[in-house]
UniProtKB/TrEMBL annotation:
Species annotation: Muribaculum gordoncarteri
TM segment ranges: none
Catalytic activity: (2R,3S)-3-isopropylmalate = (2S)-2-isopropylmalate
Cofactor note: Binds 1 [4Fe-4S] cluster per subunit.
GO molecular function terms attached to this record: 3-isopropylmalate dehydratase activity; 4 iron, 4 sulfur cluster binding; metal ion binding
Protein's UniProt name: 3-isopropylmalate dehydratase large subunit
Length: 464
């Protein structure tokens, strides 16, 4: 029978289907960060269990880490305890750990792919919703809760109901100045934040195929923001080229064997999806959000639309959201003054994002009214930024690079946007208070973020 890419990977990992329909799924790769794992390790200790396959789990602190002076003890006691607990647990249970200042440390969703730990055809889990990022490699990757983290540590398996499948096809070519982030924000605004609930999405079509691995990761990263369990893209030569030679990737004969298998990981031509959605890349322009969920977005040249639903509750929450953001229906966003710009996160903290940002700020100066946080997703990204001389371009334009971590994506560390201030952020969530109590977040891609950082107001990068 014809099968989808998702079915092929899922079926290859199904150990058992239990009554009620849940699958016992074998997990190839398990990533751990400091926020969602302490109770899972406590659970193992309580039950006197070891980690079943320690070599399959990789730990890296990222959320609670400061992005300056990581060689010094973390000043904030809560963050310090959180990070130290992960280090202790990794040590006690014999797990690979990339601790602070380790050359392989960084945001878990950035370091997995760049070290060849994320591979096509893998099942990948992490106690983190943006685990969907790894789907860019043709992996079935999804976020899990802390009790499931414990289950995976103890058994290398997880119980999961099988999601439905959806294919989102983006035909044609992206226009100049339009990035993978714009594509993702466009799709979410069309689908709404609940539009893919219960589905595992496969992205397809010319515009998706033409994305680099970095762009594919950005797209898959945001799958969760439309409610999807995960998102994935069939692996191809772009994927194999990216993986080849990375530290944990297969080598020699094992590589050839792996690639031969990976080439089979595509949806059969006549495979049926539970839902199919098609978009045209030519309809996408640089995007920004105006509200407090990632679906409340628009093209940068547009005006804030009126609520298009017909229910009272929806209208109320739409208005509440605009009140929080201090925006009005019908207003243009271009020209709105910006206080903070954040380049980074597991959405846009890879080297390609820094190249994009640098391409706009080159030969220009940072606006005086803007505080800019430029945070590479990992030490390896930072190294590459320097190797390519992008650090000079950024420094000449008045920007400073920080050390890797989740940073201002989520107010769990020192990088908090003050109440009332407006941030243009390349991250993935614009919820109330996400970047700090009272902070107002406008989501955008790296080009729009760079244009805002230079002009001090929301600006269409194509006009610079
Ligand atoms: C802290 C973690 C559980 C959370 C997530 O699951 O996504 C965080 O990474 C986020 O982006 O909100
Ligand atoms: S960078 Fe942001 S979205 Fe990604 S894992 Fe960290 S907090 Fe979550």
């Amino acid at each position: 029978m014809a099968r989808t890419l998702f079915d092929k990977v899922w079926d290859a990992h199904a150990v058992n289907v239990i009554e009620g329909g849940s699958t016992q799924l074998y997990i190839d790769r398990h990533y751990c960060h400091e926020v969602t794992t302490p109770q899972a390790f406590d659970g193992l200790r309580r039950r006197g269990l070891k980690v079943f396959r320690p070599e399959r789990t990789i730990c890296s602190p990222d959320h609670n880490v400061p992005t300056m002076h990581q060689d010094q003890p973390i000043a904030d006691p809560v963050s310090r305890k959180q990070v130290e607990t992960l280090l202790r647990n990794a040590d006690e249970f014999g797990l690979t750990l990339f601790g602070l200042c380790h050359p392989k440390n960084g945001i878990i969703h950035v370091i997995g792919p760049e070290n060849g730990l994320t591979l096509p055809g893998y099942t990948i889990v992490c106690g983190d919703s943006h685990t969907s990022t790894h789907g860019a490699f043709g992996a079935v990757a999804f976020g899990i809760g802390t009790s499931e983290v414990e289950m995976v540590l103890a058994s290398q398996c997880i119980l999961q109901p099988k999601p439905k499948t959806m294919r989102i096809t983006v035909n044609g070519k992206l226009r100049d100045g339009v990035t993978a982030k714009d594509m993702a924000l466009y799709i979410i605004s069309k689908m709404t934040t609940g539009g893919a609930t219960g589905y595992f999405v496969e992205y397809a079509g010319e515009a998706v195929r033409n994305l680099s691995m970095e762009g594919r990761m950005t797209l898959c990263n945001l799958s969760i923001e439309m409610g999807a369990r995960g998102g994935m893209i069939a692996p191809d030569d772009t994927t194999f080229e990216y993986i080849k030679g990375r530290e944990y990737a297969p080598k020699g004969e094992a590589w050839d064997k792996a690639v031969a298998y990976w080439r089979t990981l595509r949806s059969d031509d006549d495979a049926a999806f539970d839902n199919e959605v098609v978009f045209d890349a030519a309809d996408i322009e640089p995007r920004i959000t105006f509200g407090t969920n990632p679906g409340m977005g628009m093209g940068i040249s547009e005006t804030i639309p009126a609520y298009d639903g017909d229910d009272e509750a929806g209208l109320l929450s739409y208005n509440k959201s605009l009140d929080y953001m201090e925006f009005k229906v019908g207003q243009k966003m271009e020209g709105v003054p910006v206080d903070y710009v954040f380049l980074g996160s597991c959405t846009n903290g890879r080297v390609e994002d820094f190249r994009a940002f640098a391409s706009i700020v080159k030969g220009r100066r940072k606006a005086d009214n803007v505080t800019a946080w430029l945070v590479p997703g990992s030490w390896s990204v930072l190294k590459q930024i320097k190797a390519e001389g992008l650090d000079r371009v950024l420094a000449d334009a008045g920007f400073e690079l920080r050390e890797p971590g989740c940073s201002a994506c989520l107010a769990m560390n020192d990088d908090k946007v003050p109440a009332g201030k407006l941030a243009v952020s390349t991250s993935n969530r614009n919820f109330e208070g996400r970047q700090g109590p009272g902070a107002r977040t406008v989501l955008a891609g790296p080009l729009v973020a760079a244009a805002a950082a230079i002009t001090g107001v929301i600006t269409d990068p194509r006009k610079l």
